[in-house]
Amino acid sequence: MNTVKEANDVLLDCQNVWKIFGARSSAAVKAVSERGLSKKQVLQDFDCVVGVSDASLQVRRGEIFCIMGLSGSGKSTLVRLLNRLIEPSLGKIVVKGREIAKLNPAELRDMRARNIGMVFQSVALLPYRTVLENAAFGLEVRGVPKDERNETARAALAKVGLSDWISRYPSELSGGMQQRVGLARALAADPEIILMDEPFSALDPLIRRQLQDEFRQLTKSLGKSAVFITHDLEEAIRIGDRIAIMKDGIIVQVGTAEEIVTKPAGDYVAEFVAGISRIHLVKAHSVMRPVGDFKTSQPHCDVDALLKASPEADIGELIDITMRSERDAVAVVENGSIVGVVTTRGLLRGVAGMPAGAPGAA
Amino acid sequence: MNPDVLRFSPGAYLAPAVDWLNANFHPFFAALTKLIETVLGGIEAALLYPPAYAVIIAAVLLAGFLIGFRAATVTAIALAFCFLSGLWTASMQTLALVTVAVMISVLVAFPLGILASRYEKFAAASRPVLDIMQTVPPWVYLIPAVMLFSLGRVPAIIATIVYGIPPMLRLTTLAFNQVPKDLLELGQASGASPRSILLKIEIPSATPTLLVGLNQCILLSLAMVVLAGLVGAGGLGAEVTRGLTRMEMGLGLRAGLAIVAIAILLDRLSKGALQGRRIGRSATAA
Ligand SMILES: Nc1ncnc2c1ncn2[C@@H]1O[C@H](COP(=O)(O)OP(=O)(O)OP(=O)(O)O)[C@@H](O)[C@H]1O
Ligand SMILES: [Mg+2]
Q1: Shortest CA distance to A14 belongs to which of A56, A77, A52, A53?
Q2: Facing residue for B183 by CB, picked from A114, A116, A124
Q3: S-S: B130 plus which of A145, A151, B166, B270, CB 3.0-4.6 Å?
Q4: Cα dist. B150→A115, B20, B174, B245 in Å?
């Protein structure tokens, strides 16, 4: 298995990063590091805004990492810290083993040109350039010869389905198409990590879903890593391998979609996940009863005669299996042996989002 | 008590300063005079050496090809008027003066305008200076200019430049401040060098406003060049002055209309340069 290698292969490491805005930010930083002031206290005592507060996160190779939070929670600030468009007040950011705060301007430019691409919420296409020229921009500033960069840009535009539009101007494209040009521009530069700051927020729901799926597929097939900012938890769940939830500049929870939905850390996250459909998120292993437990409570039931499912089957699949069976339970099989049983009650509990240990578990 | 003692008289300090400059930096001013005279002479010769109709045809064709049919028509009418009113030489002299003055104004104002957009302190410091340059009646500049460069075309050009710099500088600063922040961020995030950001993002984004600044600079310079007829700069200004001193209504009117013709010509051509690009852009794109 390559999970061990992947776990070690951290491309982007952000360690206890703070960003404090304001005229007296240096004094505020000092107070924070020495006395551990809170965001409110910093605002009161120093009249400074804490944009990001003690954020730590790791993005692994090939992973799509979503950062989700409401407006003003510091998402844009955090993502701009990752490629040093904003200097951190405190903390360390390591990209591919190099601390970016220590790079000189030329090294930083090189790092941005080769390793970290960025896609903007506002798209940021140059209005006086054609789609092709826009997509080739990153290569152009890197000094790639014209034929070569146009070739690469054309290929990137083909990947996002815009081959027929290369000689048009951005103003002739719809919002979704413009956003695709932005993505193609980032892809053409071939970075290992793509930072996306709410790229799809301004689009209507249908186009948005389509772009989300396309983006996920493309990123996975190209083996890129991405940090994806969004204020929409459903989007984060559709796209992200892991999700970080931010509130007032603090990362309150990091985990997979399932972890966040089934084990929300605190009321704030719980409120967010309340409206999320669990059918495709909650897996058999988190709603099953251990097999021994089940046998003692229902001794007359023959566990071996139940239909079987894997521990990774989601509630949707389990419902399908239950409907096909005459019994009200499904056996969960791992490595050839039955490890647990999912009852109808368990399914209902999973759909309703009640935690596994809650009373009434059956 | 004698109120004269309290009277503020900056001229009393300025005049010795100008004298001092004149005494100590005469070679510098002489060299500057020579340089400007040479450039001016070259442009004048280029405009006046060929027969008038050849210049008119060439200008009309250029305007037609580079901008469009309407610009070509305006060019034809304006230049034909200058020719038919018998003021061709004076008109071309004025055109040359304005061209040189505007070139120098832009060369000075453009980089300073960028500096002002980058450094708020520089912008704050330059603002009162620009206000003074724009509000002092223009012929006041002519006095020190004549003292330093003596009579002729050069003091006229210097005074014109002083007058033409503020609008260009202000609009350059505005143009660069208006460049969308997300485009600058794009440049940085793509790893572009400051030079690439300037050339590939800032200047193209600022072009429409820069062209408005250029347009203002041209028209104000033209107004000043006419005034400079008073110090012997020649051209249409001299004709107007002559009409005035001799009370020749006909000459004054003809020269006045020729100035209007030149103004319209320069205005339409500089605006056309802006709009022509726009039309060309959407036409190729459609
Ligand atoms: N340049 C700045 N100067 C001062 N304060 C800033 C600056 N940029 C951001 N902030 C503050 O930092 C906080 C986080 O802002 P940020 O733009 O990161 O939020 P966000 O999560 O991206 O919000 P949105 O979803 O609206 O884009 C806000 O309180 C904001 O006021
Ligand atoms: Mg934001």
Answers
A1: A56
A2: A124
A3: B166
A4: 62, 15, 36, 22
Which of ligand 1's atoms lies nearest the C-alpha of A75?
21
> Which ligand places an atom closest to the C-alpha of A77?
1
Position in ligand 1 atom list of the atom nearest CA A80: 18
- CA dist A233 and B252 (Å) reads 77
- Give the CATH class of B38-48+88-285: mainly alpha
Joined together, the tokens standing for residue B62 give 């250029």
pLDDT of the residue at A359: 45
Q: What local confidence, expressed as pLDDT, does residue A1 receive?
A: 41
How far is the alpha carbon of A30 from chain B, nearest alpha carbon, in Å? Answer: 28
**In chain A, where the domains are located:** 61-81+104-115+191-274, 284-352
pLDDT in tens, B102-142: 999 999 999 999 999 999 999 999 999 998 888 888 777 77
Task: Quote the pLDDT of residue B279.
Answer: 43
> What pTM was computed for the model?
0.82
B282 close to A (CB below 8 A): yes
Q: Say whether B30 sits in a helix, a strand or coil.
A: helix
Q: Which CATH class is domain A61-81+104-115+191-274?
A: alpha beta
- Which ligand is nearest to the Cα of residue A80, counting in written order? 1
Q: Which residues of B touch A122 (CB under 8 A)?
A: 180, 182
pLDDT in tens, A68-118: 999 999 999 999 999 999 999 989 999 998 999 999 999 999 999 999 999
Strand pairing class (A289-290; A337-343): antiparallel
Instruction: Please name the member of A118, A130, A168 whose beta carbon is closest to the beta carbon of B189.
Output: A118
Of the partner residues B183, B193, B207, the one whose CB lies closest to the CB of residue A109:
B193
B164-193 residues touching A, CB cutoff 8 A: 180, 182-183, 185-193
Predicted ipTM beyond 0.95:
no
CB contact under 8 A, B285 and A140: no
Kindly report the average pLDDT of chain A as a whole number. 88
B38 interfaces chain A, CB cutoff of 8 Å: no
Tell me the mean pLDDT in the region B251-258: 88
Read off the pLDDT of each residue in B171-187 and give the average, rounded to a whole number.
Answer: 95
- CA-to-CA dists, residue A242 to A4, A57, A60, A226, A254, angstroms: 17, 11, 10, 11, 7
CB contacts of A172 in chain B (<8 Å) are 285
B285 pLDDT higher than 50: no
> What SS3 class is residue B193?
coil
Sign of CA dihedral A312, A317, A318, A324: negative
Domain A284-352 coded CATH 3.40.640.10:
no
A74 bridge partner residues: none
